[in-house]
Amino acid sequence: MKLYNLYQNIILEEIIKMVQLNEAVSPYDVDTVLNGDNGKFYYVSFDYKDNDGGVSNRWVQIYQRNISTANNGLIDAYQVSKNGANSAPSNESGSLTGWKKFRLDKMSNFKVSKVPFYQPQGGFNKTGNNSPTVQSTQKIAPVGTYKYAASTLKNKAYAEKKQQQQTQPAQKPVQQQQQKPVQQQTIQQQNKNLEDKEELTNV
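RESULT FIELD:
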């Protein structure tokens, strides 16, 4: 009886794993992330069924939702880590970080974190994905539109003004040097006019 219960539990665990893997992430869940929060966007984690049949956890920034040429739902994301690592082991090739495509039907355990990001990664295409494997782009995150607080902008403007004031004194001597020849020329011209006037008077 104990052996039967053990086998039953093992089979039940495998069934649960299969059900979890079949729970595809919906386009609605992805679009909610892509909409952001007033220009603020959040990192996402999910489990992904790899090509070798294994499952790995991914930590990404999502930028686009697309449809592939095979009519599969996709996301374009910048992967920050895989299974908590951002560099591949020495016995494996490839990079764990960078731009990657993920199929929605292979994703599960989709969680939105509270860790924000504001600016896009290099290589982000705001007009959509032009990859030959992508049929169409359905939604793009308006990344880079975050509006900084008024106090931040005020401090930034003050810093820029102070920097300009600090650079102005260094420019004054140059301006004064440029003005001296003009002043000397004016004095010389006045003297010449007096000499000319004296000559006319003498004549």
